[in-house]
Protein: ABC-2 family transporter protein
Amino acid sequence: MNNITKYIWIGWTSARSNLAYLAEVASRGVFLFVILYIFLQLWRVTYTETNAQQLGNFSLAQMLWYLGITESIVLSAPTIAQEVDEDVRTGALAVQLIRPLSYPLYRLWTTLGERAVRFGLNVTVSIVIALLFVGLIPLSLPGIFLFLLSLPLAFVLDFLATFLVGLGAFWLENTTGLMLIYSRITMILGGMLIPLDLFPEQWQPLLKNLPFASIVYGPARLFVQPDLAFAGELLLRQAIAIGVLSLLVAWVYSTAVKRIHANGG
Structure:
């Protein structure tokens, strides 16, 4: 079995194992339903009070679909930083290094398998809610294709950032605080709660070029408002961010592994 086949099998195994926890799936679906229903009522009041048909070029229907996608992306994220943190503190990472697998790639493919299942279930619930309350919005096959192209890159980018946070356990007693900061920044600056188009105009160019937007806002915006030029810019930003973060992760990880060897691990 060659290397790529190993990692694909790891991802497939992770996906299958997540399908076994039906109770967790059901609870996540109920939580998502409540969240989207609350947001729908809030945005409905906002559109009514402002007497606007569109806000930031989003109609009310598009806004709910957008929120469904962003919530599905954010809520599908596994606890990567916590798992890496635990591996470092318990010494399990030293055992992982003996195996004929790259630990970062092992974690990446495990995460992708787990996240694919979680996102699929979340987005199914979101689509049902959107259809029930606001109906279908105009969609196109090219737009869906571009969305599906950008989504895995968003997942990889998010993995690299959270894996980097987890590696902080080599120098910090606990990385929970860092992960909390990262998750909140992603929610706000990534456009989970409010599309970046509604932020002050002078802020938008900066926010849209940050990696957080490429994880949440970009794919969701591409789904509800397909645009070839926007898709090209998004894919380019994702590729650049993944390249930069990959180099940073490689450098931090190699430095961290040396600390294990230096301490006799």
About this structure: Residues 114 and 179 are 19 Å apart (CA to CA). The chain has one domain: 3-262. The radius of gyration is 20 Å.
